[in-house]
Amino acid sequence: AQLVESGGGLVQTGDSLRLSCAASGLTFKSFDWAWFRQPPGKEREFVAAVTVTSSGRTPIYTDAVKGRFTISRDNAKNSVYLQMNNLKPEDTAVYSCAGAWPGNWPPLNYDYWGQGTQVTVSS
What we know:
- There is one protein chain.
- The chain is mostly beta strands.
- It is built from no helices and 11 strands.
- The radius of gyration is 14 Å and the shape is globular.
């Protein structure tokens, strides 16, 4: 399986970005999907997750991004997205997508990871 992120870049405070993660080599619609980020010099942290469409569960977010970020999935395109609005300098990080075979919610472990895309927010 392969996960490829795109959409990162250098933006200013208050700008928006939309990250994409294209998955291949697996049954995309069967997986839970999440975005994580790793700020410079810090550990990786959870950002948002979306479960399989049939579950009816709403996505979950870390408190720092609630109301600004939206995770979504398109099973027809084997892709998961992260719409990021009102970006702040503290959002600067490498953002990675990850897929988990459904079990616990939210997932405790993820089976597949992308390489990441850099997001830099200048003040």
